[in-house]
């Protein structure tokens, strides 16, 4: 039984809820909230004609809509506001509602808060999707019931009733999703860091700070996997409260996942375990050696010797 989820369902049913953006993640969210009997108003910049197919899929649900150019003009008096990741948290309409007392959140934030299973979260400037997929496939091969979500897979909040404590959840998380997160995954993975999405983030500093939320709220029993060869990710280690595990394609570490003499090894306490030869990796490309090292560092405790 997921007591936290049951309590959330009771709580959200008493709230006036706004959903900003009727897209890939929020359409299942709207359906899920509607099945709980929540009072929902959905907002989207697109006109009704542009959203025809999506609105048809929501037909019959007790949902009100504000659509078109001035769609946020009626964003007033809501208790809970779910926003899509690319809507900035500091737009005037959200700031005003937050100051009034509204809870501003997202489908992903609520999922991470309520999920009963262990969560692997993957972020970074490059290699996220490949690494996330590798982790998911390795865990499946080990016999775990796995769920894939975030930027790939499917939205998971509407499936949360099916997820068990013994399952594993693997999420690819963008800086937009992480920006307002207040809980971190159990196993956090940062592939690398380089300037990215600076058309949305105000600065490189803001972008990096958003990424740090993947480990910022971890505890001592959690784990963060960092790229030793990347100066920014390497520097994150001093800010963590969790176990730090490195990976290095340059072979610079004594503990963690490392490439040495063409072999991918996992080193720990003076011992080396050979995982695979680099030329056996089925996905071509030098960068995929790094993705494999990242995945190895993330799942090593979950793999049978």
CATH class wording of the largest domain: Alpha Beta
Return Rg in Å. Answer: 21 Å
| Helix fraction bin | 25-40%
How many domains make up the coordinates?
Answer: 2
Flag low-confidence runs: none
Number of DSSP-assigned strands: 14
- Report the CATH topology name of the largest domain: UDP-N-acetylmuramoyl-L-alanine:D-glutamate ligase
- Based on the coordinates given, report the CATH architecture of the largest domain: 3-Layer(aba) Sandwich
Q: How would you describe this structure to a colleague?
A:
- The protein has 305 residues and is α/β, with parallel strands linked by helices.
- It folds into two domains: 3-105, 3-Layer(aba) Sandwich (Rossmann fold), CATH 3.40.50; 117-302, UDP-N-acetylmuramoyl-L-alanine:D-glutamate ligase (3-Layer(aba) Sandwich).
- The chain is built from ten helices and 14 strands.
- It has helices at 3-12, 26-35, 52-57, 92-100, 107-114, 128-141, 175-178, 204-216, 231-235, 286-299, and strands spanning 16-20, 39-44, 63-67, 80-83, 103-105, 118-123, 146-150, 168-172, 187-190, 223-227, 243-248, 256-260, 263-268, 271-277.
- The strands form two sheets. Strands 7-8-6-9-10-11-12-13-14 form a nine-stranded mixed beta sheet, sandwiched between helices. It has a five-stranded parallel beta sheet with strand order 3-2-1-4-5, sandwiched between helices.
- Strand 2, helix 3 and strand 3 (63-67) form a beta-alpha-beta unit.
- The mean pLDDT is 93.
Give a short summary of the structure:
The protein is an alpha/beta fold.
